[in-house]
């Protein structure tokens, strides 16, 4: 779960397939959706991450999944061949696939293995999959070059790329940093797997949202300057 | 190309010099930080009632005496009847003397004074004498208890060399009491049980772990109080109350809980006093209640350091009758004085390593003669200790002219330390002798008596101060010198590394002139390597991260390889995108790389899961615990499978080196196979009996394996460079030379790591056999990985990664930063007679299995790096080849280690008053020192091997050209 970003500045010929305002709306919905999921878990089901990590994570995933899939499916690339429903379908398919990749990554980096940890890891990787893989799957489908460009080379060519790439990388990097307090002996309940990692991932994701928004606005203004 | 700026010779000389400076600096620092004082072994006996140097034939043989007979003998010899018969030692953890006695003649704060009415009344009545007993740092419970009972100020290395048994092995007052047949009962802090396992007839230990509990922890002690006080069977009752320390930790000195806690303690004192002390005239004898605290506390309740608040501990003697002393509250003493005082009060010999002097106010009720006799006994004991610590101390050599001068003359006229002690002692002894002979002058008020008293006190105080400072004082100059030397060496190594990197970089740029921007930018993995250094250095400052250091290494190494996975992925697609000149070669190369990365990551995860490690979470389940539960059959099965797989892998890897004569390779394979079979045989047949009675065969077999391993490795190292053929029919001369060089390095490097792993399979605990195999796999995979990525990655990154992997593996084998995990049992495999040096070497081999393995793998690493391009283009000599191939593999580990060493040394200096300096930071420092030794050894083996290969090849080349 550790893929860091190179400097994504080089894309100077950015195509803006999504207008900044639309991106803003989409990001707002994503961010608010995530926050709302927490609020619902806390206030309606009275669950929180520290006491019931698995249940809360699953609840948040269930809440966030439709929001993300429905939103990002609007931005699908190959509109001519792919209907909206198909994009939604491949987004749904990507949930377990991405969960497996995330779970493997987390386990390699040291997530505990065992029967009592399995639900936690499983639910955590569902959420991570939603934050990282699912948007890409909705937009790109099985296009290897696009996936490769986003996740291996961290090269964004257009505004949808930013919208997928930056939040996903933010979530992964945030999760990586979120693991840091775990070995400290502060004896706080939130130091358990996967609580602080989740916090880190969500914080990173939100930062990624803001950053991608910033990039899109910046590119937009650059483009206007060029046109003038 | 300006290669003259940093030739191979220069590089070597400077590097060796830097390492030497480092070793010297480290030595200076260690000796300064952990002063080693010669402790006397054994226990004091009858000889303590004779002057030092007395003929040992005079002494009565005490081995056959019963406890009570010994007690009477002691009484007879000491000439002073014991003042008390029974002792109640009430330890109140963390109670500053100030709370009870006040400070500088002022009474304690009003709330505390009111909280202890009974104790105050005892003090005013004169039935109690209180002391401000100054404790020595570290002000932590265990060392302080040791100081109280043994009278000695211990050093850290004493503890370290006991392999972490916490039991007190030196002479101490508890053992002396046991010798005269005392029964001892202990209730309270379980530190006592760790110090004296099996010495108490009854005990109820409470743990100091639950700091938030201030009530239950004391109730668990007090509930025994009434029963024990009515019991008559004990002579020493130890009560250790932890609650007050916990109150301090929670709320500091002025916590609202402090006054109630003091009131509770006052109640305890009152109960004891009312129940026990008045019985002084019945058959139980006279009872002394001694209230002590092990240390004080700072304003916010912490302790460990050396401030007045922390070292101001209490010693309060409460007897059945008046002591007859004038003042009960303003006396000052040292905590170590308790041991000698107790010994003299109860008529047993003073512990051998005691550095304290008796507390004179407690003996005022004795006659003048008796007081002088006790002073004499104390002086004899200290003189014995001085003689042990100052080997040249022979008092007859000094002419102490200013004998009968006034007391004001004292130490001024003496030139040396020895003379000072001798003259002070002889002055007191002479005065005392003349006092004894002149019967008529005896009177307590007389001037003579006063003079003798002063003379004895002079001697005792001077000796005691010098002895105790010797154990705690750190020579600042020496420490600074050591740190400065290590810093200089670190800077030298780093600048060498920098110069070398710059040079290689410019050469590479010339070679790949196609302005490849891959080379000129800082890459993610390079930054990551530097970040790891920073993180490790920062983590050294936190005691919990020192305890759990393994997490950092695991996390960092796996992150590092996930980063390279990403990098390989990038390259895969570049090839498919370009799709022009990309042949099949690089593509399979990429797949091999991905596979090797997965091997590294997965075996790394297994290594991590094998031992839970660390300090705080050792009880969590891990694979080793699971296997141990499953039974020894499974462990053995795993062991056999590991050896089998190891042998096979090494044979297969040998086949990869294909440019060699067939006969020769068969020989090498046999030399790999044979020791492997021997180890298999040993495991199947002898391992279970290795520590049993029929262990002679096992020992012999182990010795045979050592010999075979040694023989095979030397033979291979010596022979291989001569036997690998030159093939210069088709290729350029220099290229053939390079291939030959690489082949030899490959075979030798593989043999090194294979033999090392075999040795580990023999020595490590059976449970660790699979991890050794995983380590071997990891090494091979990392070398495969680096063989694929040739010019895209700078060499130093790969070498640094190997070093990090070595550290991660170190913890994967179950090592931690405490001394408790050192495998002592394995250190006696194949050692017939107990030999500290041999066992020490084996222990080092076992503990540093993984870092050494990775260092040895550097030989193999140099063989897979593609240097042919360099060799062809370069019209160079051996020197530049060596510099190129060997520079980074040797300098990077040295440089990294020097950074960690200097950083940790500075951390240790800063933390010298930390609460955990002895339990966490100092053991880790020993590990850091041993790692330095390991790195130096490993690098020198690698360097000398490569140098030898180069020499032989150069010689052969010369021969060949001559015959041509």
From TrEMBL, chain A:
Any single Pfam family the record assigns to this protein: PIG-F
Protein's UniProt name: Phosphatidylinositol-glycan biosynthesis class F protein
Alphabetical UniProt keywords: Endoplasmic reticulum, GPI-anchor biosynthesis, Membrane, Transmembrane, Transmembrane helix
Membrane-spanning ranges: 21-41, 53-72, 92-115, 121-141, 162-179, 199-219
Subcellular location: Endoplasmic reticulum membrane
Entry membrane topology: Multi-pass membrane protein
Top-level taxon in the UniProt lineage: Eukaryota
Organism whose genome encodes this protein: Datura stramonium
Pathway it works in: Glycolipid biosynthesis; glycosylphosphatidylinositol-anchor biosynthesis
Keyword Transmembrane helix set for record: yes
InterPro entries for this protein: GPI_biosynthesis_protein_Pig-F
UniProtKB/TrEMBL annotation, chain B:
Transmembrane feature ranges: 12-34, 479-500, 521-539, 637-657, 664-684, 704-724, 736-755, 767-784, 796-813, 841-864, 885-910, 925-955
Bilayer topology annotation: Multi-pass membrane protein
Pathway named in the protein's UniProt entry: Glycolipid biosynthesis; glycosylphosphatidylinositol-anchor biosynthesis
Family annotation (InterPro entries): Alkaline_phosphatase_core_sf, Phosphodiest/P_Trfase, PIG-G_N, PIGG/GPI7, PIGG/GPI7_C
Subcellular location: Endoplasmic reticulum membrane
Span of domain GPI ethanolamine phosphate transferase 2 C-terminal: 526-948
Keywords: Endoplasmic reticulum, Glycoprotein, GPI-anchor biosynthesis, Membrane, Transferase, Transmembrane, Transmembrane helix
Record CDD domains: GPI_EPT_2 (cd16024)
Domain of life: Eukaryota
UniProt-listed Pfam families: Phosphodiest, PIGO_PIGG
PANTHER family membership: GPI ETHANOLAMINE PHOSPHATE TRANSFERASE 2 (PTHR23072:SF0), PHOSPHATIDYLINOSITOL GLYCAN-RELATED (PTHR23072)
Family per record: Belongs to the PIGG/PIGN/PIGO family. PIGG subfamily.
Protein name, per record: GPI ethanolamine phosphate transferase 2 C-terminal domain-containing protein
Organism: Datura stramonium (Jimsonweed)
